[in-house]
Amino acid sequence: MDTPLLWHIPLSHFNEKVRWTLDYKRIPHRRQVLGADYLIRAWRATGRGTLPILFLDGRAIGDSTHIIAALEERYPEPPLYPGDAAALHRALALEDYFDEQLGPALRAAIVTPLFRHDPDLALRVLTTGMPDKAYQTLRPLVRIFPAFYRFRHKISDSKLEAERAIVNAALDRIEQERQGRAYLVGDAFTVADAAAATRDPVPAARRAAAVSAGLPRHAATASGHAVDGRRLPAASRPLRGSPATVGCRVDAAASV
Ligand SMILES: N[C@@H](CCC(=O)N[C@@H](CS)C(=O)NCC(=O)O)C(=O)O
Fold it and tell me: Where along the chain do its domains lie?
C-alpha cells in the first residue's frame, strides 16, 4: 500500500479537519501544500475544484467528509464515529452542520471585510503557508481575484451581517450541544468535535492580524486576536499544539 498523500492548503478549516483526523489516528502520511494551480489540479484529480484531497489506496478522494469516512473504514482505531447508532447519527448531523453552515459563513465573515478594505492583504492571507510563488503568481490578478473568489464561494458584501450571525449561532450551538461536557457527542472525541473545533476562528484571525501587522508570513501562525473575543471551549480542542506532538507526517515538496 502506498503511503496516503494529502493535498491541502494551510489556511482552511476543511483541510484542518482532515489534518486533525490523520494526526488523531496517527496515520503515517505525506502532505503536499498546493499553490496557485490548486484549482486545475484538484479538478483533474477529483472532478471538483476544492481541497483537501486525499490519495488513499489508489483513489483520489475529495471532500473532507468523504475523506474521513474512508479513513474511518481503512483505519478504524481510534474511532471518530461513535459505535452507538443514535450517537453516530448525531455526530454525522453535527459534522454536516459545521461543514455546511458554519464553515462557509466563517470563511465569508473573515474574507469579506478583507476584500472590502485590502484585497492585497486578502490575497496574502488566503495564500498563507503556500509557497511564496503562489502569492507572486496571483498578485497581478488582485483586481479580479476578489470577484472570482466571491463567485466561487457565493460571498457578497450584503450578506456579511447574516454570515456573522450564523457564526455566532454556531458557537452558541456548540455550548448547547456540549451541555458542559468535554465533547459534543458522548464522552469521547468524535468527528463532530473535529468538524467544530477546526472552525475555531482564532487561528485564521491570528494569521490575518499578523500579516496585516507586516510580520513575515511564516510568523503569522503564532500571534493575534480572537474574533469578537470569542473562541471555542478548550475542551473541544484536544489536539491543539504543534503537529510534531501528534503527527506522523512528512511534508512533500510544494508544487508551485
Ligand atoms: N465540502 C468541502 C469544502 C472544501 C472547500 O471549500 N475547500 C476550500 C478551502 S476552505 C477550497 O478548496 N477552496 C478553493 C476554491 O474553491 O477555489 C470539504 O469538506 O472538503
Answer: 5-80+241-250, 85-236
Q: How far is the CA of 14 from the centre of ligand 1 (A)?
A: 7
| Pocket of ligand 1 contains residue 236 by CB under 6 Å | no
Beta carbons of 68 and 39 less than 8 angstroms apart: no
Distances (CA, A) of 34 to 10, 42, 63, 65, 210: 9, 9, 16, 20, 22
The end-to-end CA distance of the chain, in Å, is: 27
3-state secondary structure of 145: helix
CA of 77 to the centre of ligand 1 (A): 27
Annotation: CATH topology of 5-80+241-250: Glutaredoxin (3.40.30)
Quick: pLDDT tens for 141-184: 998 988 999 999 999 999 999 999 999 999 899 989 988 888 99
49 Cβ below 6 A of ligand 1: yes
